[in-house]
Specification:
Blueprint (H helix, E strand, L loop, with lengths): L1 E7 L4 H11 L5 E8 L4 H8 L4 E3 L6 H13 L5 E4 L8 H7 L3 E5 L11 H8 L3 E8 L9 E8 L6 H25 L24
Parallel strand pairs: 1-2, 1-4, 2-3, 4-5
Antiparallel strand pairs: 5-6, 6-7
Helix pairs in contact: 1-6, 3-4
């Protein structure tokens, strides 16, 4: 069973869904801690579930803040780090500390519409469909190896919120499936050309 640390910034609805799936035994993982860059609904959900939490408020320079939050993550010795609506970019050095065992979901069919406004940008572009992706986080902005993705149609009259809600439902399924496949060995993160591992000398990661 994989040990997960999840990072959130907002309401944490995707995190709450993952928590429900792990506790129901549908995803072979345990969320051992939830961290954030601010107080938010996701932290409240974690605390109500008895999960340890931490907050590392953002402060410049980003590189120093990133290493502080990396230290907070590392203290829990996770097998996998999941960014779930986490709205801050980590520095390349912080990412490298966990890469490739650090995942993010994105509300677009990458490489289309990267960045913080993927849903808004898809609507503005007038496309007939967008999507959802699960990627390995790297030092770029939504440029890491794609582990799973699925198309989502843009419906006539769609608002940003309505489209985003449908994308979130797909993101949740994709993330759960990816984590399950990592735990089962069906996805080997090393196959994606990434050589870093969690700096946890006693780590016995299931997929290796």
């Amino acid at each position: 069973m994989l040990r997960l640390v999840v990072l959130v910034s907002g309401s944490g609805t995707n995190f709450a869904d993952l928590l429900q799936r792990t506790r129901a035994g549908r995803v072979p993982a345990e969320i051992i801690a939830v961290g954030a860059d601010r107080e938010c609904g996701g932290l409240e959900t974690a605390r109500a579930a008895g999960i340890p939490t931490f907050v590392e408020p953002f402060a410049a320079p980003r590189e120093e803040w990133s290493m502080r939050i990396a230290d907070r993550i590392g203290a829990f010795e996770p097998d996998l780090v999941v960014l779930s609506g986490f709205m801050r970019l980590l520095s390349p050095a912080a990412v490298a500390r966990f890469e490739p065992a650090i995942l993010n979901t994105h509300p677009a069919h990458l490489p289309e519409f990267p960045g913080a406004h993927g849903v808004r940008d898809a609507l503005a572009a007038g496309v007939a469909e967008t999507g959802a992706s699960v990627i390995v986080v790297d030092s770029g902005v939504d440029t890491g190896p794609i582990l799973a993705q699925q198309r989502v149609p843009v419906l006539p009259g769609d608002t940003q919120d309505a489209l985003h809600d449908r994308i979130k439902a797909v993101e949740r399924d994709l993330l759960a499936d990816v984590i399950t496949k990592i735990a089962d060995g069906a996805i080997d993160l090393a196959d994606h050309g990434l050589e870093h591992r969690l700096d946890r000398p006693d780590s016995q990661r299931t997929q290796q």
